[in-house]
């Protein structure tokens, strides 16, 4: 595997050289709503010119749930829509309930059309922000030099890495969860989900959701209301059908008697 790097205007990139090493790049779009990353458009152009798949991230400064939605809309408007995933970068406490603010940010991005939305959460803020209760598609945590103490899909293991063609120190990342690289790069166009249910009580659905999340640590699990007194759990998305099938079989063995099936989305 090559290199997964996150980049901002603090680095200057020679894409013809850097692209030979990069498997995936995560590009900063903005710092709050007021600061637009000076190198973002150049980095997008470089990724596209040299075939490097990329995601977007925004450093969050919101001070309320409504402000979080505004920041999310600015992020969506400024970010290139070829990004395969959008990350909310939460590192500083800017409101009392950071979990609620972050969820509002994520939900607004989904409403606008983002198919995958993750969080980048400072290791020392994970518990304070109740990151385990945030409904996100991927979790990305920085910690040097030791691995994070919390479940995550990406581990930012260095802030002093080196990549040929990129000036100075570079943030570098490892895959640490169950999601393969192609889940992040979007190299597979067909996605799958696992649906579980249906439940006729919200409490039952909520209890089942917690049990599934504990069993599938690091997976995206959320509930969907179908109609009055009808709820369904959704696990995924999966970009690999075999991975989805394997997870479905594990769930059936762990939760016999539950209705569950694979959905092609």
From TrEMBL:
SUPFAM superfamilies associated with the record: (Trans)glycosidases
Classification via PROSITE patterns: GLYCOSYL_HYDROL_F25_2
CDD domains cross-referenced by the UniProt entry: GH25_PlyB-like (cd06523)
Signal peptide: none
Pfam families for the chain: Glyco_hydro_25
GO MF, any single term: lysozyme activity
InterPro entries for this protein: GH, Glyco_hydro_25
GO aspect biological process, one term: cell wall macromolecule catabolic process
Stated family: Belongs to the glycosyl hydrolase 25 family.
Protein name: N-acetylmuramoyl-L-alanine amidase
Species of provenance: Bacillus cereus VD184
Lineage: Bacteria, Bacillati, Bacillota, Bacilli, Bacillales
